[in-house]
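User: Hey, my collaborator sent me this sequence without any context and asked if I could get a structure. I don't really work with proteins. Can you help?
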Amino acid sequence: MRKVYYQITKYIFMFMTASFIGWLYEIICDYCFYHEYSDRGVLHLPMCPIYGFGMFAILIAFNKLKNPFLIFISSTLITTALELVVSYVLEWKWNTALWWYDDWPLNFEGRISAVSSCIFGLMALVFMKGIRPGTECIYRSRIKNPFSVFVMVLFTFCVVWELTHLKG
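Assistant: No problem. I've predicted the 3D structure and written it out in structure-token form, which is a compact way to encode the shape of the chain:
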């Protein structure tokens, strides 16, 4: 039972980390393109869950893959397909578009862009070769209660969100 508990908290931690990195990416892109801050988070937290789900798709598909080039190419294709499908589902189900790449070069219907796809491939490579092993190392160390790591990360998310929403 304890092993299952460790696995669940580890995957929640990775999901939240990927969602947070995705939120940072979104904030930086908005600022670079439009020169303004735009909160892209959901659930009153600085996180974009699509990045967490994309991370799980990559983790499941490429768990055993070691070659960085293959990880980059394969994850670029998977994240691009995921982004395209989700954009159609969002438009069909809720009549909304949460992202639009009309201003980006090499875009398809404004739904995906070769530039963003390459960025997602790089993010996946960083996740698979850096964040994931770091998380594994944290959870293999002698942490008595991995839930404390989860709470610490959630607390950090809340603090970052509050700091980005200070009225000044």
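In plain terms: The longest helix spans residues 2-34. You can pass these tokens on to your collaborator as they are.
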